[in-house]
Amino acid sequence: MSGHPATLSQKVWNAHVVHEEPGDTNLKYPSLIYVDLHLVHEVTSPQAFQGLRERGLRVRRPDLTIATTDHSIPTSDRSLPILDPIAANQVAQLDKNCREFGIRHYGVHSSHQGIVHVIGPELGLTQPGMTVVCGDSHTATHGAVGALAFGIGTSEVENVLATQCLLLRPSKTFRVHVNGALKPGVSAKDIILALIARIGIGGGTGTVLEYTGPAISALDMEGRMTVCNMSIEGGARAGMIAPDDTTFQYLNGRQYAPKGADWDAAVARWRKLPTDEGARFDREVSIDGDTLEPMITWGTNPGMGVSINEAVPEPSSVSDPLERDALAKALIYMGLEGGKPLAGHAVNVVFIGSCTNSRISDLRSAASVLKGRKVSPNVRVMVVPGSMEVKRQAEAEGLPEIFRAAGCDWREPGCSMCIAMNGDQLQPGQYSVSTSNRNFEGRQGKGGRTFLASPLTAAASAITGVVTDVRSIL
Amino acid sequence: MKPFLPFESRLVPMPNNNIDTDQIIPARFLKTTSKEGLDKQLFCDWRYDAEGNPKPDFILNTPRGRNAEILLAGDNFGCGSSREHAPWALTQFGFRAVISTSFADIFKGNSLKNSLLPIVVSHEIHSRLFALPEDAKIKVDLASQTISLPDGERVEFPVDPFSKTCLLEGIDELGWILKQAPAIAAFEAGRVGSIDTLG
Question: Which of A335, A367, A361 is nearest to A348 (CA)?
Fold first, then answer.
């Protein structure tokens, strides 16, 4: 279909079709799509490797497969053994599987270890125009470089290990246009929280989002990753941003990025990826970047968000009975009353980390607020860098000293309290302001209550001990 | 995979919208390296109190929640993570179908690969199903893509035609992809390099 205007996601899709059944006019068969990069971690892969063993299969392209350990590992001293025997077994299992099947593994003691969605772009593994998959829904992160990147289940992990391919149906296209320029104190996290509050957590189901507009172009790569990361929280399979000079500058010189003449050829190819003029999207929304405020969630899904000084909704304001009931249930779980803003609500824990907001720019932004200040004595503050590389860079810039002087706990890289598998967790009833991506019931620990926000809002709230509009203390 | 045959069952109603995968199976149970034994952890934090005792009013702890094969859930069931542990836990508990007005994409795909049928119905049918008496039974027939209500009304539901064939005939998807090896090899021959050089 060359010559026909296509979107970014359609171009990447079209370049990866391995096979379509001939004469399949009724579209009975899905397309067989090639995967350029398969990222693997300890939680969703053991059953897939076991499946390969049972079938007597090898990994077809170990050279296109990279593993790291991130979900189950402690963020405390790495020279100590993992105390949880079940976690220790899972971590050991990934080591063993990678050795047996010949896969590169940036394991617990590797200098490249980190959250899988942090190390992919950081190492230059994820590149424009690629198809990238991982057994993790936040794989959408890698769409920030213009890759078609999405989460898959363990059966599909097994399929990709064995064949480097997936059977897929194309998604619908959904353009999110963000106009204007963000005000000081407003960041990428606020864009994506505002979008999800608007379309709802099922609003993007069946679609690939493409983020466009001046407020997106103005974001640095790490901000773009934050936006794409939470596409899944709006129900979308993936989120993408067209590669541009910001992308190329970010990738140039990274370990796995092309070099020399290969680099020039790659950039020439990547420049053809942006959506063609005249290409049609199945759906479009616009967001006004000029009027965006810092966002925060009050409820038990990422769509339950408001701007920081806006009142939490009251059940009586909702006409649909199921929605009213859901709102009332969320308020009960969160121990909140509707009708009042969250600003001023006491918090017990502040978590700065996760595949959404643990990159160097996120840490710099939190440190800019915390520098020379003390966190509230009532708040435990955890700062968890996304990777060993982020940790080294932060150390080079003196950020751990700023965090420690303020009274924060500076940790080792991993998913940590975002998913609370590793012992980093809230106690029942505790409130956190978290820079992570999910506020589902119990997500950060059984009975824990999560307010999702940006690193700036998290740092400001750490200082005051209550939910705080960062602009009030700048 | 065993062929997916027609069946009849009572409904287990769970009217909450947006039931996420962290509720279906909390993340702390994902440290396992096995697919087995997950039925005990299904809806764990809704099902058990802090001491691990069953909460008497949670539906799976009532007679209505036992020996039934269809979960009737609110909108956007299965949102959140890609964990296939969610359909593993549901099927090990005994569910063979979930009825909702919509499903999250990854959950739906994972379910179809594990003989758990996601059935999408209209809001009108959804409300009627919730209003049925406790002992009412629904027939599920994948071949005709219909559910039959107790009054005999048949309601069609959509299903991906390839997934349908795989379920009905017990076809293994990986086996099917492996047969495309020549096409995969041809595709690879047209490109060079590995992640060290691929651009």
Answer: A335
DSSP string computed for A78-139: TTSPPS-HHHHHHHHHHHHHHHHHT-EEE-TT-TT-B-HHHHHHHTT-S-TT-EEEESSGGG
Task: For residue A37, give both structure tokens.
Answer: 């990069």
CA distance B56 to A207: 40
CATH superfamily of A8-168+245-267: Aconitase, domain 3 (3.30.499.10)
| DSSP codes of every residue in A24-86 | -TT--SPEEEE-SEEEE-TTTSHHHHHHHHHHTPPPS-GGGEEEE--SSS-SS-TTSPPS-HH
Residue with tokens 């020379």: A372
**pLDDT, tens digit (0-9, with 9 covering 90-100), for B144-187:** 999 999 999 999 999 999 999 999 999 989 999 999 999 999 99
The count of other CB atoms within 10 Å of the CB of residue B49 is 11
The answer, for A407 touching chain B at a CB cutoff of 8 Å, is no
- Could you tell me how far CA A417 lies from the centroid of its own chain? 14
Do the first three CATH levels of A8-168+245-267 and A172-244+275-291 match, i.e. the same topology? no
Residues A256/A123, Cβ–Cβ less than 8 Å: yes
Tell me: pLDDT of A422 over 70.
yes
Q: What is the pLDDT of residues A280-294, one digit of tens each?
A: 999 999 999 999 999
- Is ipTM over 0.90? yes
Q: Are B3 and B168 in contact (CB under 8 A)?
A: yes
DSSP state of A280: P
CATH topology of domain A297-472: Aconitase; domain 3 (3.30.499)
Q: Domain segments of chain A: what residues?
A: 8-168+245-267, 172-244+275-291, 297-472
All residues of chain B having their beta carbon less than 8 Å from the beta carbon of residue A165 are 177, 180, 184
Token pair for residue B121? 């119905």
Could you report the per-residue pLDDT of A230-246, keeping only the tens digit for each? 999 999 999 999 999 99
- Report in angstroms the alpha-carbon separations of A237 from A148, A203, A223, B32, B76: 10, 11, 19, 26, 14
The 10 Å Cβ neighbour count of residue A468 is 28
Amino acid at residue number B78: G
Cβ pair A61:B194 closer than 8 A: yes
The neighbour count for residue B189, using CB atoms within 10 Å, is: 8
Burial status of residue A89 (CB atoms within 10 A of its CB: 0-12, 13-18, 19 or more): middle
| Residue-wise DSSP of A396-465 | HTTHHHHHHHHTPEE--SSSGGGTT-SS--PPTT-EEEESSS---TTTTSTT-EEEE--HHHHHHHHHHS
DSSP A313: P
| Partner residue facing B106 (CB), from A43, A151, A323 | A151
Q: Which class is A172-244+275-291 in CATH?
A: alpha beta
Mutation target vs B (from A71, A127, A156; most B CBs, 10 A cutoff) = A156
Give all domains of chain B, ordered by start, each with its CATH number: 7-171 (3.20.19.10)
Whole-prediction pTM:
0.97
Interface of B with A in 83-142 (CB under 8 A): 83-84, 102-106, 109-110, 113-114
For the four alpha carbons of A266, A145, A359 and A371, in that order, the dihedral sign comes to positive
